[in-house]
Structure formats: C-alpha cells, structure tokens
Amino acid sequence: MRKTHPVWTGILLLVIGGTIGYGIGLGLDLLVSHSLNFNGSVAAAFALFLAVTSFFFGVYGYRGITRGLVFQVIGTLVGALFVTGIRALVGSTTIFGPFLFSEPAWVFGALAGDVSFVFGVGVVSDWVKWVRGLDTPEHHEDEPGWEKYFSVSLDHKVIGIQYTMTALVLIAVGGTFAMIFRTELAQSQLQFLTTTFKLFNQTGPQFYNTLMSLHGIIMIVSILLGVSGIMNYVVPLLVGAHDMAFPRLNAFAFWVAVPASVLLLMALVLGGFDTGWTGYPPLSARAPVGMQMFFLGVFTAGWSSILGSANVIATVLRMRAKGMSAMRLPIFVWASIATSIIALTATQLIGLSFQLVMFQRLLGMPFFDAAKGGNPVLFQHLFWFYSHPAVYVFVLPGLGVISELLPVFVRKPLFGYRWVAMSSLGIALVGFTVWAHHMFASGMNEYLRVPFMYSTLLVAVPTGVKFFSWVATLWGGKIETPTPMLFVLGAIVVFLLGGLTGPPNAAIALDLHLTDTYFIVGHFHDTIFGGFVFPFFAAIYYWFPKATGRRMSEFWGKLHFWLMTPSFLVLTFGMMRVGLLGMRRRIVDYDPALGFDTAHLIMTIAGYLIFISVLIFFINFFYSMTHGEKAEGNIWNSRSPEWQVPSPMPVHNYEVPFVVVGEPYDYGLADSKYVEFSTNGSKHVEFPTAPEVEKHH
Amino acid sequence: MVHTQDKKSMLGQGVVIFVYLAFLTGLEFLVAISFDSVPLLVVVALVKAALVAYYYMHVYKLNLESEEVESYDYKSGTNRLGLWLFLVSDSFVFAGLMAMRINLLGLTRPELNQFLGLGVTAVLLISSFFMNRGETLLHNGDRQGFLWNTAVTFVLGLGFLLGVVLIEWPTASAEGLTPSSGVAGAAFYMMTGMHAFHVFTGLILLVIVWLNGRRGLYDAKNYPVEAAAVYWHFVDVVWIFFYPALYLIGTAVK
Questions:
Q1: Region B106-123: what's the mean pLDDT?
Q2: What confidence score (pLDDT) does residue A683 get?
Q3: Which of A23, A96, A358, B43 has the most CB atoms lying inside 10 A of its own CB?
C-alpha cells in the first residue's frame, strides 16, 4: 500500500517536472536567441513535455504510458536534432527557427516522437515478435485494478474505457479553451486577450484564434475517441464476441491517439495557428509551426479512427453470436457499421489534404499556391470529402444509442426496426455526396451548387426516418425517466433543433447569407450535442454499471441534465440569433454598435453553466467508481445480452455463449425472448427480470 | 476450393495472366503514343486492375466459408477481411491523389521520359508475376521455389524503387521538373513518392516473409505470405492507374 494517493504524487511531480522543463527550455532559448522569453514557446514546450510525463511517472511509475511519453520526448528531440544537424552540415542558413528548432526539424521530430511513443508504450511488441517468427499468447494477463488502464491491454473493455477516459480528458481541455474565449466574447472590444497580451509567442487576438481552432479540433478528436470508446466497449458485448477481431490492432489504434493529443497541445505552445480547425490554405501555408503540429496531430488521430473502424467492421462481420442475422443486429451495431464505413475510407482524405499543405510548406510544392498554378479550392474539396461525412461519424453512433436505449425505458418495441437499421447506412452513403455544400461561397464552379444542395437536402430523409421511429416508439409507452433516458430525450430535442437548422444552410440562397456567421456555429453545436454529447452522456450513465458494478448518482446525474440542457439551448439560440443578425464566426471582437453585448453576455453565462454541469458529471463519475451504489444485476431491465450476466463484465465476456432466438427490441411483449444462454451445467446466473404483464398490439 | 485445382494449372494461370497484363501494358503504350485516347487508356487500366485483383490478389477468397470458428482457416479469413478493409482505406489516399492530379493538371501531364516510365512499369509488373509464382509454389509445398521467387520479387521491387528514386527523379529534375517548379512537378513527386513509400513497406514485408519462410514457419500456416503477396499486388494495381496518369494521358507540360 502506498502512503499517499498516486494522483497527489503525480501532481507534485507535474509541478516539479514542469518547472524543470521550463528552466531547460528557457536556457536553450537563451542560448539560441540570446534573449529570455519567460512566456515564450520553447520554455512552454519543454515544460509541457516534462510536466505531462512526470505526472504519469508519479501516478504510475516508469512503465506503460509513462515509458511511451518518455520515448516520445526523446524521439522528438533526437529527430529534431538529427534534422538540425543535417542542416548544419550542409551549411543551411537557418539551422534554428523561431521556436528553437527549424520547422522541418520540428516536423521530423514530432513524427519520430509519434513512432517512438508506440514502441515505448509497448503496443507493437507482439508484432515485433511475429516479425521475428515468435508466437505470442492470444491474450496477455492484465494487472488487476486501475493500473491496467495505464498500459497496453488487449481487452476490448479496457481499451473502450481507455478511449472514453481520454475523450473525457480532451473534452475538459477543449471545454476550458472555450471558456477562455467565451469570456473574452462576453463584451465587445478586447478585455484580456489584448494586443499587448503575450503568451507562447502569440498576441491576445492570435491566442484567441489558436484557442478557437484548438477548441474545434480537440473536441473533434475527443468525439472520435468517445465514439471509439463506446463502440469498443459495447459492440463485442452486443454481438456476443469474446473480443474485437484484431485485439492488437485495437490497442494500437487507441495508443496512437495519445501522442496525437500531445501533438495538438504542442500546437498551442509552438506559436499556435489561426486558421480554425479547417486549416484552409493559403492561410495555413504561412501560419506558425503550430500549424504543422496540428496537421500531424490530426493525421495521427486519423489513423486511430481508420484502424479502429476496420476492426469494428471485421468484428461484426466475423464474430457474431449464433442466430444473429442482419435483421436481428442491435441498432447500435448497425450504426457502428455505418460510422465505420465512413471513418475507414473518408478519413484518408483529410490526412491527404493536410499532408499536401505540409509538403507545400516544407518543400514548396505548390498544390494550393495559385501563383504557381495551384488551386486552393482543391484543398477544400479534399478536406470536406472527409470532414462532412465526419459529422456523421460523430452522430451516427449517438443516434444508435438513442434507438438502443429508447425501447428499454419506454418498455415498447422499437418502431420500424428495419427502416431505422437501414437509415444509418442511408445517412452514411448519402453523406459521401454532400461535401461541397460547405463551399457554396468558396468560388467553386457554380453548376456544382445545385446538385450538392439537393443531395444535402436528401440527408433529411433517412434522418427523418429515425425521428419518426423515436416519436412512434415513445407514443403510448410507459416512459421511465432515469438519467440515461433524460439524456436520450434531451438528445432527441436538441438534435431536432440541429436538424431543422440544417436545410436553411443547404439552400444556396440562404447559405450565401449564413456562411461564416454564428448561425452556423449554433447549428453545428446543436447537431453535435444532440447527435453525440447527449447520447454519449446517456451511454455513460447507462453502461457505467456494466463497467464498474456500481451506478452513478441519480440526483447528481439529473442535476447535470437539468443544468446543462436549458443552458445549452440558451447558448445555441443566442448563437443563431446573433448569427442571423450578422455576427461573424471565429473573430475575437465585434462592433459594439451591432448591439450584441447583452446576447453575448447571456451566452457566456450559459457557457459557464454548461461548464459547471459537466464538472458535476466529472465529480459524479469519479466518485461513483468507488463509492457509487452497487448495481450488479440487470438494473435497467434490458433484453440486451450484456445485461443478462453480472456486472462488472467478466474478463472474457460470456462464459456461456448465447444464441439469438428472437427480435432485439420486443419490449413489453409477453413470452418474447431475444437471447438464450445454454445453461446446462454452467455456473451462469441469470437475473430475473420484472414480469411484463401488459400486452401491446 | 483452391486445393482441388491442379497444381500445375495454378502456375500456368499465373503465366497466362502475366502475358495478358504484358500485352495490355504494351497496348496502352502504343495507344498513348499514337492516338492518345483517354477512354481507351482508362478501360485498359481497369481491365488490368481487374485481372490482378482477381487472379493475383484472389479477391474471391473473401467468400471462402470455413466451418470451425476457432480454426486457422477461419482466423485467416478474418485477417483477409481486415487486410482488404485496409486496402480499401488505402486506395482512398491514391484516389485522392488521382483527384488532385486531375484537378490540377487536367489533360496535361508532366514532361517525362516515356520509355523510362515503361521500363519501371515493366519491372514492377514482372515482380508481381514472380510474387504470384512464389505464393503458388508455397501453397504447393515447394518452400525452395517460394524463396527463390520471393527473392526475385524483392530484387525487382528494389529495382523499381531505385529506378524511380535514383534514376527517374534526378532525370526529371535535371530537365527542370522539380517539386517546387509547378503543379506538374508537385503532382509527379507527390504521387510517385507516396507510391514509392508503399513499395518500400512492401519490400519490408517481403524480407519478413522470406526470412521466416526460410525457417519453415509458413509451410503449414501460410496466410502471412498471402498477405504480403496481396499487399504487393495492391501496390502494383495502384501503379496500373498512376502510370497512365503520369506518363501517358494528355500533352506534356513542365
């Protein structure tokens, strides 16, 4: 037993490591630039590296993630020094750059750090053994307790929780960034992010731009990891698999997301970038080095998404329980398949578009340089070919969660199962054909606008199918409202608002007015909160007992909901209002004569209330892990197989495999069964479910 | 089932398909230098890709059924699916590069030595033939044959890589086509560079299966060899499209 809690050791070392790193960075910067930059980038970069690494060292010791981070730091430095050395040898005039190393050195270093991380953390060690012709056991034994979450595990449930926790950390970071710039926006004129403000080689407005851009991308990466988290944890349980199809690839997909997150934070300190998360050239072709860190971070996180998706598809196609035919798959699994198809394929295009800008910056290849025959609009095509379908990657699993949970709490069959299952695929496929609706005002060929308008409007059809199904499922049901159900209902309402504000943007005539206004920001937040954030919280409240054997507090959960939902609605309605009146998005300041001060103040207060509500969620989450009410049985009275076995889920999932014998969502129908466990001679315990007396017709 | 087929006919099939591919490559070249018909070049490329995908990459194996869920065959089936999913994903990178090339260059192409292009293309195509031969021989239980053919594949693959990076690139840049000279150069170096990177990773896989194959690791469980071969052919398929896109279609510009 330790005397102090490891987290306190971690925080202590975080401070010490951060200070030492700050000192080292300051000294190196002094050597190269001959001036002391107390709030400069180099000191901050070293402080960030050493602080994060020391924190995990204090919590966990030198293994797992700590080893990975140490390798990343060393790899980055070695890579950067390597390039710097070569530049010195060939007699280049710019051996060092404004941030200690030159830009090519930082890029190569960051890439080397990425690769070093996966070797350091040990996620490729089995593959290295295979290359050497050695065999490895199917599964490693995990350490008991919390410690297994900090190093490589091949268990999909552990990886699912690792994903979810990383997503929550990033939500906290991205949310904090939003709070900072929302505070600046509370009043017109510049209050604290002024032109005299100086941090990480950025002035106040530049820092605002960096925070705004990073808020976008960090939240997006967080959503991708959250989606992977739920899919990883739930999909094998729902289909009756003992694990994912490729457990090592699964672990790899998670672990590359960690150095990716570090790279995104590096973007903050290395001069930042002011393009927004879209990174359009020509601006992104001349932003500071932070831009390159952003590109590399997104590129690395993209691989996580691609490899994770391949795994989900293979798992569902190859590892289903007996009797689980296509039309008996849970809706969430259908949604996961649809989302994985997009993530598997389209993600490559954002990676490619960012690579092209990277090469334009590094080697002067003029892909997007109009002066040399390049085409900046081409970037937008490549970028949006992923980034529009990406929003379906975010929302489809969330919509799947809604359809999955709704019948449980309404005690009624899901209305129109087949249509709902197919609508996910429909959204995914139509989603591939709509990307240029982001570019109506970009100067692309005008004849392209109309087909993209109609294809965009077409998305409303499969989405509408889902809404009709939800409403018809709710109709006449015995609605119970524990916390997960509250979030499901909230999701439906908020996503409806997001959905209804979509077609105006798709209509060309209106979009030319709405482009780049706060209306878009409001619409986007509505879709993502309704399609991902609310369902994500619902999923956490719902499956938390499955993972921990305890449930989260209902009181604090409900408080979280009732604080967050109205605040969120106020926030997005406010955004849409000022947007319609002409407020530009992504700007640090607005004219007081526009009269938006009151609206922005209200939005900022609403933002803070959301922040507090999520804080309540975090406290509830961590407290309930160890102190929550015990919940080992089928507490939601679900028909789904994972709730028919005790919580927390056994290590190898189902000791006795189950057979699917009926429809998944026939709640409230007497004598209907979904799964059957062959119980002869096993230790398996089935929890009695409450008798369902009422028959629906 | 593959096992019931005559062993010699499998080897013969590889030869026949190679003759078809070689013929189509020659045809493609003649079409390009004589009357430059883009639709015809597209059709030829599609036919070549389909031949490689079916006969060399045996995409139909995705449909193989195996009864025992815990068996090696079943697991290989899952791995095969995973590999193809990866290839589908990867082909989006190359499709994106192709879209980039079409957008930036249209019906023009970088000014390159067309015979040099035909030469490296032939080297890569021949390497695919030997890869297929090696894999088939291993299936037939001939480890030595597998090792020889894989070694030849490796040498040809390395020849292609060096041909592009050490001959083609310096030649082009000596004639003024550099990465920063214009969009033609940018497209050329980006596309060949990305392809060369994939050839490089394919070569690493070949070394791995050669070394482990020499120790008899794949005599019974030979899926890794199949995977390396499928990947190698995939890289060839990419070149089947990139070659006409860079060397044959349209008029040459600097």
A1: 93
A2: 45
A3: A358
pTM (2 decimals)?
0.94
Distance CA A409, CA B198 (A): 51
Residue A292 to residue A302: CA distance in whole angstroms: 15
| B217 contact residues in A (CB cutoff 8 A) | 133
Q: Does A128 touch chain B (CB under 8 A)?
A: no
DSSP letter string over A84-121?
Answer: HHHHHHTT-S-SEETBEE-HHHHHHHHHHHHHHHHHHH
Q: Write the pLDDT tens digit of every residue in A175-218.
A: 999 999 999 999 999 999 999 999 898 999 999 999 999 999 99
End-to-end CA distance of chain A: give it in Å, rounded. 59
Q: Are B111 and B174 in contact (CB under 8 A)?
A: no
Q: What are phi and psi of A246, to 5 degrees?
A: -125, 85
The answer to whether B82 and A249 are in contact (CB under 8 A) is: yes
Q: Which residues of A touch B102 (CB under 8 A)?
A: none
pLDDT number for residue A697: 42
Contact A472, A430 (CB under 8 A): no
CB contact under 8 A, B211 and A133: yes
pLDDT given for residue A107 in this prediction:
95
Rounded to whole angstroms, the Cα distance separating A591 from A579 reads: 14
CA separation for the pair A232, A263 (Å, rounded): 24
Return the minimum-mean-pLDDT range out of A331-335, A386-390, A517-521, A678-682. Answer: A678-682
Alpha helices in chain B (DSSP H): 7-34, 38-51, 72-105, 114-139, 143-162, 169-174, 183-214, 223-243
**Number of neighbours of residue A566 by Cβ within 10 angstroms:** 14
Query: Helix A534-548 crosses helix A554-580 at what angle (to 10 degrees)?
Result: 160
Q: In Å, how far is B16's CA from the nearest CA of chain A?
A: 33
The residue whose two tokens read 């990406």 is A390
* Inter-chain residue contact A378 with B104, CB threshold 8 Å: yes
- Cβ distance of A381 and B185 shorter than 8 Å: no
Whether the bond between A535 and the residue before it is cis, its omega within 30 degrees of 0, is: no
Strand pairing report for A658-660 and A675-677: antiparallel
- How sure is the predictor about B6, in pLDDT bands with cuts at 50, 70 and 90? low
Nearest-neighbour CA in chain A from B109: distance (Å): 14
Report the b/e string of A668-696 with b at 16+ CB within 10 A: bbeeeebbbbeeeeeebeeeeeeebeeee
pLDDT tens digit sequence for A41-54: 889 999 999 999 99
CB contact under 8 A, B96 and A363: no
Residue A475 to residues A400, A472, A479, Cα–Cα distance (Å): 19, 5, 9
Whole-angstrom distance, CA of residue A407 vs CA of residue A370? 55
CB burial readout B148-169, b (16+ within 10 A) else e: ebbebbbebbbbbbebbeeebb
pLDDT of residue A679: 60
Residues of A in contact with B212 (CB under 8 A): 131, 133
Q: Which residues contact B128 (CB under 8 A, 6 or more apart)?
A: B18, B21, B52, B56, B153, B232, B233, B236
Closest CA to A588 of A194, A13, A297: A194
What span, in angstroms and rounded, lies between the C-alpha atoms of A395 and A223?
9
- Interface A-B, measured as beta-carbon pairs within 8 A, has a size of 99
Residue A137, pLDDT score: 82
Residues A254 and A304: beta-carbon distance below 8 Å: yes
A682 contacts A655 by C-beta, under 8 angstroms:
yes
CA-based nearest distance A343→chain B, Å: 9
Task: Residue A122: name the closest of A263, A307, A255, A305 by CA.
Answer: A255
Q: CB contact, 8 Å: B63 with chain A?
A: no
SS3 at position A691? coil
